[in-house]
Write a structure and sequence with these properties.
Length: about 180
């Protein structure tokens, strides 16, 4: 079986071509790539939509001992999203959450400084923010990104990814529920 995409740029070109035409060429649309993997995808989506491109740094809160499995995520503006099911069933203590969140917050700030390079913070009030990543496993980082752009008063939020797990699609299609919670 051959892959759907040859690389992230190809995924972005295909995703950009699949975007609804009503987002093209609008001054109120901005494409936000989630570093690292989402940025090359977002670049191609922004080109296809003739829209500005920026970044939104988010960080996964990896489960201790299984860093790739998310127990939550953080985003700028003090956004923390936790997957209560994972936290409860894996026996994660509040102290562990705080330790992981503090370490990831320091990394988020470092990366934000690096990616923004002195540019002003995002201005999203009244805009349609198209959030792009290279794929979704649990959806935690995207949920944090959505919360961050909503806090910045985006008029609309669109999630655009070339691949996703069924779990992430389901999680992102409903409001924060019994399984996830937002901590501000």
């Amino acid at each position: 079986m051959s892959p759907f995409f040859s690389d992230r740029e190809d995924a972005g070109r295909q995703l950009g071509a699949a975007m609804p035409v009503h987002y093209r060429g609008r001054e109120d649309v901005i494409v936000l790539g989630l570093p690292r993997g989402g940025v090359p995808v977002a670049r191609e989506v922004a080109k296809a939509l003739d829209a500005p491109l920026d970044v939104l740094v988010v960080r996964k809160l990896g489960l201790p001992g299984h860093q790739e499995y998310a127990m939550g995520a953080i985003a700028p503006g003090g956004i923390t999203i936790l997957d209560d099911w994972v936290v409860r069933n894996m026996g994660v203590t509040p102290e562990t959450i705080d330790r992981v969140r503090d370490a990831e917050q320091a990394e988020l700030e470092r990366r934000q400084e690096r990616y923004r390079r002195g540019r002003p913070p995002l201005e999203l009030a009244g805009k349609t923010a198209i959030l792009v990543d290279d794929g979704l496993a649990t959806g935690s980082t995207m949920r944090a990104a959505v919360a961050a752009v909503r806090r910045l008063d985006a008029a609309a939020v669109v999630i655009a990814v070339p691949v996703s797990s069924a779990e992430a699609c389901e999680t992102l299609s409903r409001p924060i529920s019994e399984r996830t919670r937002s901590i501000v």
